[in-house]
């Protein structure tokens, strides 16, 4: 049982994590409920596995509306996600995002005729930069400065050579785009001049073979950053990020960082709605405006979208 108090708001939080709702725990719960010194709005009962005692508890407890009952499966993934949910901040005074959609008669600047949708944002992944050895989750193409232990204690710029260990394939349709993060990198067959022509040609054949195999079978390759350290202790304690290779063209691949278990955060409970409707309703005016918006015939082309001279300028008087 974990209890925390906030003396300013007079809030009292109780989190009970149990795999068996015993009589002693029930007695403790009743004691807290009957104690008028506590604010009883924040009592969370977390049950590992679906215990049959929960149903009898619901029937016998008089203040069941004061409880937030959660069920957690008895495995490390489910329990891990529950504790990670404590990292999420759902208590905020203002919305995070205001999305403005143009009316049927579009104006150059955002004004009160535009449709505005307020949204809250939630992180899907833990920022890798907050992790120990965060550089192990990325691949850098710029030289970094390293120090050499010499008499002059000099330092020089060095470009790291990364080793990616192939793990398995996944179908192109079997991955979630929200699990991808970081800067995408184009991967082509190396033409490094320190290797002879025969080695370069053989390497190019191997690269083209991999690219063609991925393209024909509509696959992507999951890889893990290999730790070149000779120390077994360091290898076991350090992080190594995961990456996905996908086809960019007939002669190139795209390399992107992909989330691992340590970075994953739980998703919000989307079934909880502040306003519930018996039947889903649509905003007819907004629906007409959306139907009037232009649909590009071609794929997204960044050349048509310049960050430095956007015509969509937010009028700060609307906020």
From TrEMBL:
GO BP terms in the entry: male meiosis chromosome separation; meiosis I; spermatogenesis
Source taxon at top rank: Eukaryota
Alphabetical list of InterPro entries matching this protein: M1AP (IPR033587)
Protein name: Uncharacterized protein
Higher taxonomy: Eukaryota, Metazoa, Spiralia, Gnathifera, Rotifera
